[in-house]
Specification:
With 443 residues, the chain is of the alpha/beta class. It folds into two domains: 398 residues, Rossmann fold; 43 residues. The N terminus and C terminus are likely disordered. β1 and β2 form a beta hairpin.
Length: 443
């Protein structure tokens, strides 16, 4: 049942976005990231985010921006202060597991720094023209931030061009007489997480997710993440790309202990597609990201998938320099050095845009295994799911106050409607009493 549900969900964010993703906030929309604009402007100058025409290209949303106004190639690295961070760390000695659609290790952006691990779909598709499109793009973004790190790729989800993509996406009812395939794909992500932890990686990057209101919390997957965390592995996942649509909960981002990453524009504001939930921890650039394309060279893409890979790269920089820090400490470093941390957490952009240099400098003041950095009045991480603030892991589906706000508004409108209906009913009764009994109909 869990496998079928996961199949019906969209495990790869970019795969389910067929409409154009708008970059600018809607008219009148309050964007919590606006307070960071001046700080970000000092990192990268004259970056203009414009609406773009998107083409869903085999698992990666490719952007066709206006050449005159598009963000320059590599703007994401400037915003993250990567150049300054490289004076402290380049990710030496760290391996990042990219659990995705597989990777092309022969691409120039990955060559000599990436290894293809287990294919948990148990297939032999490596020679297909579409193989590893999304995963290769993500791996290159990790290495752009942490050039001295290594990437270990695991295949656990499908690219859009994969002939089996539709059956995988739609779920168990399409597998028919092949229950072995259904069972294998249903646990692929969970198995990849455990394998990565057992092979000694320091960071796991999950540019994938299921988007549903209640049905995607899978205990086995949550336990796999808890297992990785117990081995000191930092786990990073994308917040989801349905922020301008249904904005449903997304897992694994909402699991306890996961660093959930949203997508930011060059102005430091939330990209409209980036999902809005209490589990959002921080944001990194997620629009017009210049990443590896398996057809050759690089291409601009966007999504919280790219934002996740960039954040995983920053985590690799921290772990390389300070290997004894716990995953929780790495999480807090990213939060408390982000652009709007002093303003507190908000469900749109978390604590703001990540600053790699600031996080590394703050890490120098930490003692491994300590209580970590001082928490804000609401408590760092309190907006995460069950288990992250000390509650039991098996508490079930976490509450999300972003739903409560919507529910409160809807409930208020409902009560107002009931009150108006009661007033009209009473007024009608009084009018009927004044007019006397109804006139009998003619016979």
């Amino acid at each position: 049942m869990a496998a079928g549900r996961r199949g019906r969900d969209a495990r790869l964010f970019e795969h389910v976005r067929h409409s154009a993703a708008r970059v600018r906030p809607r008219a009148g929309q309050h964007d919590h990231g606006a307070g960071s604009v001046s700080k970000l402007s000092s990192r990268v100058c004259q970056l203009v985010a414009v609406p773009a025409v998107l083409a869903a290209t085999a698992g990666v949303v490719a952007v066709a921006p206006s050449p005159a106004l598009a963000a320059p190639n590599g703007w994401e690295l400037a915003v993250l202060s990567v150049s300054a961070a490289h004076k402290i760390s380049k990710g030496e000695g760290v391996t990042v597991a990219v659990i995705d659609t597989g990777i092309r290790t022969d691409h120039k952006a990955l060559r000599g720094r990436a290894t293809e691990g287990i294919d948990f779909l148990a297939e032999t598709d490596q020679k297909e023209s579409w193989y590893g499109r999304h995963g290769t793009s993500m791996a290159s973004s990790v290495l752009d931030v942490a050039p001295a790190a290594k990437v270990l790729g695991f295949r656990a989800i499908r690219d859009r061009e994969d002939p089996d993509y539709k059956t995988w996406l739609e779920g168990i009812e399409y597998y028919g007489e092949n229950p072995e395939q259904e069972a294998r794909e249903g646990v692929a992500v969970e198995r990849a997480i455990r394998a990565a932890a057992d092979q000694g990686v320091q960071v796991i990057s999950l540019s994938l997710g299921s988007e549903t209101s209640l049905g995607a919390y899978v205990h086995r997957e949550a336990e796999a993440i808890a297992y990785a965390l117990s081995k000191g592995v930092v786990v990073v996942a994308g917040a989801g790309n349905a922020g301008d649509e249904l904005n449903e909960l997304s897992y694994p981002a909402a699991y306890p202990g996961v660093i959930a990453v949203g997508a930011a524009t060059p102005r430091g504001t939330r990209a409209e597609f980036s999902q809005v939930h209490n589990y959002v921890d921080v944001v990194t650039p997620g629009v017009e990201i210049y990443s590896a394309n398996i057809d050759g060279g690089r291409k601009k893409v966007q999504g919280t998938s790219s934002a996740t890979a960039l954040a995983a790269g920053v985590a690799a920089l921290i772990v390389a320099k300070y290997p004894d820090l716990s995953p929780r400490q790495v999480e807090q470093l990213l939060e408390q050095t982000a652009s709007t941390y002093r303003k507190g957490h908000n469900p749109q952009t978390g604590y703001g845009v990540v600053d790699a240099e600031a996080a590394l400098k703050a890490a120098a003041r930490l003692k491994p295994g300590s209580a970590a950095l001082p928490v804000g009045k609401e408590g760092v991480g309190g907006h995460f799911g069950p288990g992250d603030d000390g509650t039991p892991l098996r508490i079930g589906q976490p509450w999300d106050t972003s739903y409560l706000v919507v529910g409160g508004i809807g409930g208020g409108l409902g009560l107002l409607g009931l009150a108006l209906g009661l007033i009209l009913f009473l007024a009608g009764r009084r009018a009927a009493a004044r007019s006397g009994p109804p006139v009998p109909a003619p016979r």
